[in-house]
Design goal:
626 residues; 8-stranded antiparallel beta sheet; 33% helix; single chain; 7-stranded antiparallel beta sheet; alpha/beta
Length: 626
């Protein structure tokens, strides 16, 4: 969600900080700001416009400094407003407004402090005045109240008082070339500059692309002290900790739009390549495909794990959750293994029955999704140690914390509404189903070869689906005037209907719902009128005739149908029925094809309605808070 960048250098770091924020814009934000040590003390610039406007504001106000921090904020506590924008400052205790005196401590924060009300009630008694509605301002005043000449010690003491999740970067007026960071539940990395002339902090290594590729991933509870020519990390036990330095080639070139109007459009059309890259080198379905993380204990690799597990538990949020719902059909149908799919945001807050022989699969594009990480840790705490992630970021917390992993190769996904990350997740999950089936003796050589042949043809099949874009634009022009829509699917295409509805509401703000088509007569049919478009996913599978009956139920009530029908379904356009012909039925892999027209429908409807496609209101790309 929010983005953090910080630096200690021998050069003016304000342009570096602003550039880092620009690299993190894809995450979504509603305000931004920069603070730096200047000749006149700590100064900050904040705004509720784009980072480009912040850059111009910094130039107008001649903000320069050798040490500084910057932030993009996605509002949680307090509305999007300048007073609530980061960085936050503490001028120390006094019965005056904080803005009237120079700052002593300045801080940026990702996450949510759960005990902020308790601390907010305590600090005014010590003379601290609050000027924002945020939980973050509690931290900066708390650090100031604990400061006694050593910023590192003050941050460590403050961290001991905080409950919740946080990644913070802090400066103090009296220590002009020192930057202290800490993390608990939210990601933070240390970037090492060349020759010790500068070091950096960031919430994502991508923010440091072009500045350094030497990255240290801080662990839970770490506090890091960053100075010119030196740095050190203290773990949650209070002792110095050695953290490995990794060379990370951040994909900064992915930010180029090329011939496309928006990142979402670009990423939809990148799906053939993304699928091809994700499947690169897959010559056979073997358990070792899932050992990319090499994070398992000796004797507990993928083969041994797959032989031992008796069921699968999938944990995910949003679009990744719908990928898990499709995978349930594959895992149970191909591998014959029971599968349960849980919203990660709900799983750890209910009583469940743990089974140590469960394979816990966490799905996330970023690998930093706070709800999914927390659910994963909850499952581990209950004794479920067989963990696997399907993830797009090799250096993410989820990959580091799971014993096994399948790394998709979607590349950087900038549009908030996930597209290529979803289809590559499906590809990885289908391979998982095949690998489990192979291990359990449910997949013959001939069946495996047939499945892999179909997967290798996916990029070409996706190109054929993308060629349907002109027809989908015609549908979008009709949808643009609507305020409600219904999506229907059956079997393993029901989750695709859910994903289509999610895409439409995410970027067009049209209220959209999805149902299993067989449930239509059990309630949703009451909503059907001529003004409510009904999108139906109609592959030529075993449920087609049942689906045709559901379509007749809609038409009999005056509803207008928009069907994505396989070429051989014998569903033809007519009064109240609009049909786009898909390629021939693609069997179990059909969901990967059928979701693409729904992505394009949402995209072109958003264009027709004039919404901000890549940065929809109230949403963020990487959801690193609960």
């Amino acid at each position: 969600m929010c983005g953090i960048v910080g630096a200690v250098s021998t050069r003016n770091i304000v342009p570096i900080l602003v550039q880092g924020l620009q690299r993190l814009e894809y995450r979504g934000y509603d305000s931004c700001g920069v603070a730096a040590h200047t000749a006149s003390g700590l100064r900050r610039v904040r705004g509720i416009a784009r980072v480009a406007d912040l850059a111009e504001q910094c130039q107008r106000e001649h903000l320069q400094g050798l040490t500084g921090i910057a932030h993009t904020r996605w509002a949680t506590h307090g509305a999007p407003a300048v007073d609530n924008a980061h960085p936050h400052v503490s001028p120390g205790p006094a019965a005056q407004d904080a803005g009237e005196r120079p700052a002593r401590v300045v801080l940026v924060h990702n996450g949510i402090i759960e005990n902020h009300d308790e601390l907010r009630a305590e600090l005014p008694a010590k003379g601290y005045v609050f000027s924002s509605q945020t939980d973050t301002e509690v931290i900066v005043h708390l650090i100031d109240s604990l400061y006694d000449g050593d910023l590192m010690a003050a941050v460590q003491a403050a961290a001991g008082r905080l409950r919740g999740s946080y990644a913070i970067a802090v400066l103090h007026r009296d220590e002009p070339q020192r930057l202290v960071g800490a993390r608990q539940g939210s990601p933070l990395v240390l970037g090492l500059g060349a020759d010790g002339k500068e070091h950096f902090l960031a919430s994502d290594a991508m923010a440091l692309a072009g500045v350094t590729d030497q990255i240290v991933y801080l662990e839970e509870g770490d506090v890091v002290d960053v100075q010119l020519g030196k740095h050190w990390v203290v773990g949650r036990d209070g002792r110095r900790a050695a953290r490995p330095v990794k060379t990370v080639q951040a994909m900064s070139g992915a930010a180029e739009l090329g011939p496309y109007r928006h990142y979402m459009q670009k990423e939809i059309f990148e799906q053939p390549r993304a699928i091809a890259d994700t499947l690169e080198g897959v010559g056979a379905v073997v358990p070792e495909l899932f050992e990319a993380a090499a994070n398992h204990a000796p004797g507990e690799g993928a083969h041994a794990t797959f032989q031992r597990v008796r069921q699968v538990l999938i944990l995910a949020c949003g679009t990744s959750y719908y990928a898990g719902c499709v995978a349930k059909y594959w895992l149970e149908g191909i591998a014959g293994i029971p599968c349960q799919v849980e919203f990660a945001s709900e799983y750890r807050y209910r009583d469940s029955v743990p089974d140590p022989d469960t394979l816990v699969v966490a799905i996330s594009q970023s690998g930093e999704t706070a709800d999914t990480l927390a659910a994963l840790r909850h499952a581990q705490a209950q004794g479920m140690r067989h963990t696997l992630t399907v993830c797009n970021v090799a250096t993410s917390a989820m990959v580091r914390e799971c014993r096994l992993a399948y790394l998709t190769r979607a590349g950087v996904e900038i549009g908030v509404a996930s597209t290529k990350a979803f289809t590559t997740q499906l590809a990885g999950l289908f391979l998982l189903a095949l690998a489990l089936a192979r291990t359990r003796g449910r997949l013959t050589d001939e069946q495996e070869a047939a499945h892999l042949k179909a997967m290798r043809h996916l990029p070409a099949a996706l190109q054929a689906v993308l060629a349907l874009e002109p027809q989908i634009i015609g549908w979008a022009e009709q949808f643009a005037a609507k305020e409600n829509a219904l999506f229907l699917g059956r079997g393993l295409h029901y989750p695709i209907a859910l994903e289509g509805a999610l895409k439409l509401k995410e970027i067009t703000y049209i209220h959209a719902e999805a149902y299993a088509a067989g449930e239509l007569k059990h309630g949703p049919l009451a909503l059907v009128t001529s003004s409510m478009p009904v999108v139906i996913v109609a592959p030529n599978d075993a449920l087609l005739e049942k689906l045709k009956s559901n379509m007749q139920e809609v038409r009999a009530r005056g509803g207008v149908l928009y069907a994505l029908a396989d070429a051989d379904t014998r569903i033809d356009s007519g009064d109240g029925l609009h049909v786009i012909r898909m390629p021939g039925h693609y069997g179990l892999l059909s969901p990967i094809l059928h979701v693409v027209p729904l992505q394009l429908l949402a995209y072109h409807t958003a264009i027709a309605r004039g919404t901000d496609v890549d940065k929809p209101r109230n949403l963020a790309k990487s959801v690193t808070v609960e």
